[in-house]
Automatic annotation (TrEMBL):
InterPro entries: FAD-dep_OxRdtase (IPR006076), FAD/NAD-bd_sf (IPR036188). Keywords: Oxidoreductase. Pfam families: DAO. This is Amino acid dehydrogenase. Belongs to the DadA oxidoreductase family. GO terms for molecular function: D-amino-acid dehydrogenase activity. One of its GO terms (biological process) is D-alanine catabolic process. SUPFAM superfamilies: FAD/NAD(P)-binding domain.
């Protein structure tokens, strides 16, 4: 059964949601406060489509780090202890998820979700005449100066089968422009399947397609 769906916010999430709903036969009204789509976080997004770089928040090092975060207003995780049974139940569940076995299992789940996202983007690119948004599939190269840092990164790979650990010689063969600082480098992790794209241009490309659909309406500066 077809529904009329209302979406608030025309960033990349709102626009992709609108696209998916239209694909399923629904009517969509998209409301945006700005004069254009993709003018918030989506405007200057980093543009990395790093599907194989996933990490659960619950990690063995997080509980100790959280003590310092409590004093930092810009911390990635804010925690204010209070006499609340639900809060402490959540804390117990979070700490249990920090165990290595659980962390690895959750990492694999996140990886599968990320790869599904990549498959969906490729399907949309094949199905719809989206305007160019500077999409490229050049892979991702993360360079390390310290051998210890490279070893830790190699050990923590979630998608080890599709991420290559390169020594210095292999790194320079792949990226010769780094030859001038070769002595400062230990190696790299190369992920051939990762991609890049301009998030703001992607938002505009999606809008261009959506506005051709009779079941879509955009309300701006609302």
């Amino acid at each position: 059964m077809s529904s009329h769906c209302l979406i608030i916010g025309a960033g990349v999430i709102g626009l992709t949601t609108a696209y998916a709903l239209l694909q399923r036969g629904h009517r969509v009204t998209l409301i945006e406060a700005c004069r254009e789509v993709g003018m918030g976080t989506s405007y200057a997004n980093g543009g990395q489509l790093s599907y194989r770089y996933v990490a659960p928040l619950a990690d063995a090092g997080v509980p100790l780090q959280a003590l310092g975060w409590m004093l930092n207003r810009d911390a990635p995780l804010t925690f204010r202890p209070r006499l609340d049974l639900q809060q402490w139940r959540w804390c117990a569940t979070f700490l249990a998820a920090c165990r290595r076995s659980v962390n690895q299992r959750n990492g694999q789940r996140l990886l599968q979700l990320a790869l599904l996202s990549q498959q969906q983007l490729h399907a949309w690119q094949a199905q719809s005449p989206l305007a160019d948004f500077s999409w490229r599939s050049n892979g991702k190269l993360v360079v390390y100066r310290q051998p210890q840092a490279l070893s830790r990164a190699a050990a923590r790979r979630v998608a080890a089968d599709s991420q290559q650990v390169l020594n210095r010689q292999q790194l320079l063969a792949l990226e010769p422009s780094l030859a001038g600082m070769a002595e400062q480098l230990s190696g790299a992790i190369f992920t051939p399947g990762d991609e890049v794209g301009d998030c703001h241009l992607f938002c505009q490309a999606l809008l261009g397609y959506l506005q051709q659909q009779t079941r879509f309406r955009l309300v701006e500066q609302c």
